[in-house]
Structure formats: C-alpha cells, structure tokens
From TrEMBL:
This is Rubrerythrin family protein. GO terms for cellular component: endomembrane system. GO terms for biological process: intracellular manganese ion homeostasis. The keyword Transmembrane helix applies. The chain crosses the membrane at residues 257-281, 287-309, 321-341.
C-alpha cells in the first residue's frame, strides 16, 4: 500500500467522522463517530511514520476532497442516516449501528452470531422475477395496444411487439449488468482496502469493531473480547468487518452476467404474454382482444404475487396492478388512435 495515499484516506476519514458526529442527533452514534475519528487519526499517524521512513512527502496541509465535503454537507442537511449509500462509498465505518440486529436484539450472544444482522433473507430473486415479468407485461402490452389504436395491420402489430420485447429485454439486461458490475467493483474495492488494513493493524481494526458494538449497547469489556477473538480468524474477521464497519454484505456480490440473463428472461416472459394469440395464428381484432385479456390476467397475478413482499391483501394488490396496467394501455391506445397512421 502507498503510505502517502493511505495517510490521506485516514485523515479524510477522521475529518468526515467528526463532521458526522456533529450532524448526528443520536448521542450513542455521535460518540461512535467521534471514537472512530480518533482511531483514524491514530492510523494516519502510523502511515505518516511509514511515509517518512520511505522518504515520501505528504500533501500538507491536509484538505478533504470535494466529494467528501459534499457528502458531509448533505449529512448536515439531511442527517447521516439518509446518506448511508454515499457514506458507504467513502468507506465510512459504523453504518451498521443504524440497523436493527438479530431479530430485534441489539447484540450477539456468541461469535457465531456476529455479523448476522446483515444477512439477507431469501426471496430477492423471486421479487426481481415478479417485477421483471410485470415490466414486460405493462410495456409490451401498452406498445401493442398503441399500434392497434393506430389501425396497423396484424403483421405490423406482431413485428412491433417482437421489436418491443427485444428492445425492452436487452435494455433491462444491459442496465442490470452495469448496475451489478458497478456495485461489485465498489464492494471489491472497499473489501480489498479492509483486508489490507486488517493485515497492517489488526488490533486497531478490532478496536474499531468493538466501538461499534459498544455503541449498540454491549459492555466495553465484552465488546473488546468479542472483537479481539474475532480478528484471530482473518477470513471470518474480514466478512464481519465488511458487514459491521462498512455496512456491506459480501453475499451480495452477484454475477453481473447472471443478473443480466435473469433480467432479460423475466422481462421476456412478461412481454411474450400479449403476443401469444399472434403466435397462435390469430389475426386482428381477435388477437388484440385475446392478448389484452391475457395481459390483464398476468397483471392481476403479478400484483397479487407482490403481496408476498408487501403484506397487502392479494386481491387488492392484483386489482391495483390491473388498474395501473389498464391506465397505461388505454393511454397509449388513445394516443395511437389519435395519430391514426397505419405504419405498415
């Protein structure tokens, strides 16, 4: 690691922690940020000595980056809790102090539970699949109804529906790939920095972790015992430090390609529904009626399925989604009808 760069990062961390401590209304978390600022200053002193030994000049006086100043200003204005993603990108530790832990208990009772508060419950892929199918249904059914409203021929409607399916699915896949890839690169960078720091000064990392548990209500001696025992296993320590200090979940490092394929497939399934009558050989206007009916049924099913995550009545959820889809389809049909141009 470059001592001068590491010194700058620790000095910036100390500056940012003190800004967050001033902005935080919860005295426990404010005290945590103050303690983390002191710890960052100690680590900066270590890197200052390493830079001097290596003959590297330091950029004195220290000045925080414009990005750090902007995030600090947002934290003062909105509160640190509301800018957690931006703070995580700046490698701010202690963000797990904002989260409820262990099913309502603030503290772990043994080492096996440390860090479990950030493990996600299964069902994320199912939720993404439902939303992907719903997006395909609404967008392609509305597109088809718009072209039908413009009095296009059966062949034109079918070609438009296929084009809409491919364009939407590819757009969804590309967006998901870029999103997951960017998130993965951010996570890998931050976890890599944490691994370097764990190798350089494990005792300081243990103390930072202990401060987080103290802020969450654990007795200081017990917290330090947990933390120092934890860093004896570097692999487990890195996993927990990523969760507790950075608020990151290493289990979320999914495959960008897998996410893109999954998103493409889910959208395609939904977008195919209103096209089924056309593929079956039906012609306008019957194909449009059947396609609209199938799309309506699909919207009701996806709306009801979303109640699995919202806790709402499935009938109400289905009817709400059906109403939203109907409004979108009717709007695009009306626009197409007003244009009244046969694009065939």
């Amino acid at each position: 690691m470059d001592p001068a760069n590491s010194w700058s990062e620790e000095k910036q961390s100390a500056w940012l922690y003190r800004a967050l401590a001033r902005a935080e209304r919860d005295p426990r978390i404010a005290a945590l940020f103050g303690s983390l600022a002191d710890a960052a200053d100690e680590q900066a002193a270590t890197w200052e000595k390493a830079a001097a030994d290596a003959g590297q000049p330091l950029p004195l006086p220290f000045e925080p980056t414009p990005r750090a100043r902007l995030v600090a200003a947002l934290a003062r204005r909105l509160g640190p809790r509301r800018v957690k993603p931006a703070l995580a990108a700046l490698k701010v530790r202690g963000l797990s102090a904002y989260t409820a832990a262990l099913g309502g208990h603030l503290l772990p009772t043994d080492l096996a539970q440390v860090g479990l508060s950030h493990r996600t419950v299964g069902g994320g892929n199912l939720r993404a699949a439902i939303f992907g199918v719903n997006d395909g249904l609404v967008s392609n059914a509305s597109l088809i109804l718009g072209v039908v409203g413009a009095q296009a021929s059966t062949g034109t409607v079918l070609a438009t529906g296929i084009a809409g399916l491919l364009a939407g699915a590819l757009s969804m896949a590309a967006g998901e790939y870029v999103s997951v890839r960017s998130q993965r690169e951010l996570f890998e960078y931050q976890i890599g920095l944490e691994a370097d720091e764990l190798r350089q000064y494990p005792e300081a990392e243990a103390e930072e972790l202990a401060l987080i548990y103290i802020a969450r209500g654990m007795q200081p001696e017990q917290a330090r015992g947990f933390a120092h025992q934890l860093v004896k296993d570097p692999k487990q320590a890195l996993d927990v430090l990523a969760r507790e200090e950075l608020g990151l979940n290493p289990d979320d490092l999914g495959s960008p390609l897998g996410a893109a394929v999954f998103s493409f497939s889910a959208f395609t399934v939904g977008a195919l529904v209103p096209l089924v009558p056309f593929f079956a050989g039906s012609a306008l206007p019957q194909a449009a009626w059947w396609g609209t009916g199938l799309a309506a049924a699909g919207l009701f099913v996806t709306g009801a399925a979303m109640s699995l995550f919202s806790g709402r009545n499935p009938w109400l959820g289905g009817l709400r989604m059906l109403g939203i889809g109907a409004l979108a389809g009717a709007t695009v049909f009306l626009i197409g009808h007003l244009i009244g141009v046969d694009v065939a």
